[in-house]
Amino acid sequence: MATNSSIERLATRLGIGSGFRRIGRTTLLRLTGYYVLVLALIAGFIVLTDNMRGMHRLGSRGNALFRAEAPIASAPDATASDLTQHLWDPLFRALPPLGTGAAAVISAFLLAVPIAFTYVRTRSSLKYDQSLVQTVIMLPVVVTSILIVVANSLALAFSLAGIVAAVRFRNNLKDTRDAVYIFAAIGVGFACGVGVLVIAAFLSIFFCVLELLLWKLDLTADHEHTFGLLCMPAGASSARGETIVLPPNPSVAPALSGDASASTPSADTGLLALGGAKPEPSDAGGKKPAERLLLYSSDPDKARKLADAVLADMAKEFKHKKTRNGGNDRYVLEYRVRPRKKTPVLAIIDRLHAEGVPYLIAAEIVPADSEAPETT
Amino acid sequence: MARLVLPVSAQDHSQGPENAPLTLVQYGDFQCPHCALAHPAITQIARELDDSLRMVFRHFPLANVHPQALKAAEAAEAAASQGRFWDMAGLLYENQENLDDESLLKYAKKAKLDLKPFRKELGSGIHSPRVRSDYLGGIRSGVKGTPTFFINGEQYEGSFEFDALVAALLKASRGR
Asked: Element (H or E) spanning A371, and its range?
């Protein structure tokens, strides 16, 4: 392990693969103390505002709006200003008293702080994003304020949707997990906005505990371990854990050793106009030796048909030796080719490439005495 | 998991000690946007790991989708013949939206290359066989797109993000 100390150090800095992490006693004590204080404060708010009575609108205030619809519907000759008045008046009457609204906003802020604290604790310096910390603190305050204003007004809700749709948020999060913090902040803001501070407090606490636990245990970090744990019978080793591992320095691995076990999803590979390795010059005066032509193709039948036609036209002699599955939806066709004196083998390869798109991936000439690049 | 068929040799463009416990082989295309996105992470990893990592680059220009990739690869080879492959590779990735001949000369100048041989080599296509050879090696190893990484000879199929690559290197270093 000493030789790999720099990767171990870097991984530790990033908080990767180091097994169980320590949350730290100070963190736990501060978080617990903070929550105790905040919960006491929220309990005070609940008592003082009579369980946030002014904000429980789903029943009473919601009805205020619908109640307003009755006279409008029954008065077909109502003017536009009457309609507006009927729509907006219930809203203003329904807004909570200042004290209740302030209690909701302050609670949202107080419950968001530990979420931001958890973020700071669980992110490495390389992944830390200051704007996200500030967003997580401010977002619940804003969401709560918006919900207080929107209340149960359908008109305001539509206006809000229009405004939100007009604003484009184009912020790339450093880590996809950061989005969870944003959602948690919105959740806390929402709960405070509708006056259910108990739910907001529960959400904040539960989120922080869960996030710290996941971070500490580093769950699902190792796919093989997780796969074995979830998908294999107890006591059995992970099927994925049996993959062959090369020696640390691949230069000692046998060349052309290949592996057909890979089953990566199919993707388009661009075709490079390949000429292959330059054929070795023939012995002076001697018969030109046969070249070994390898064709890599996704469709062996089409490739064979094309190669047979091209070689019949351009080569002196040729023979199809074998076709084998090279793995990854790729087949390798092997030919022995004796080119004509005036037709270099590179010209054959160029023509194969020109006519073999898209099923011919590549063609090359390899020394006749070399081992085939077995991939099966 | 696919394996690297052609082992790393002295012919390859590499950074870091030959006997490093970790070897990261990249099949890349200078006009590939994903390669350009991965490049800063790779560079940072190479810097952080210093003597523990041997980083290798092999060409895999996807010529039918990236028309300037082949020329860019040859430009990098021309820079390599003056010992400045990595400088040129960095410049090509950073400016991959402009890879025409004129821009390549500009980058060569920026990389402090001797422009006369650079221009001559680029014009003659002398480095084309080398690029082809890398490409064929990639085909043999099952490379289907770019960037494709091999860590200690084994194909890496995860994300190209810094953390993910470090985690994969850590796993390889622990022999798992």
From this structure: none
Q: Which of B21, B63, B169 sits opposite A273 (nearest CB)?
A: B63
Distance (Å, whole) CA A221 – CA A312 = 56
Helix axes B85-94, B69-80, angle to 10 degrees: 150
Residue B102 sits in a domain whose CATH number is: 3.40.30.10
pLDDT (mean) for B125-152 = 90
Of B8, B136, B170, the CB nearest to A11: B170
pLDDT digits (tens, 9 = 90+) for A233-259: 665 544 333 322 223 333 323 233 333
* Cβ(B60)–Cβ(B135) below 8 Å: yes
Domain region containing B26: 18-173
Q: Is residue B105 part of a domain?
A: yes
Report how many domains make up chain B: 1
Is 3.30.70.1710 the CATH number for A291-366?
Answer: yes
Question: Could you give the C-alpha distances from B170 to A73, A227, B54, B173, in angstroms and in order?
Answer: 70, 19, 14, 5
Say if B3 falls within a structural domain: no
Dig out the tokens for A300 from the structure: 């062996």
Helix (H, G, I), strand (E, B) or coil at A101: helix
The pTM for the full model equals 0.51
- Chain A residue numbers with beta carbons less than 8 Å from the beta carbon of B167 are 11, 16-17, 221
Is B55 within 8 Å of chain A by CB?
no
Q: Chain A closest CA to B5's CA: distance in Å?
A: 5
Angle at the Cα of A48 from the Cα atoms of A44 and A49, rounded to 5 degrees = 115
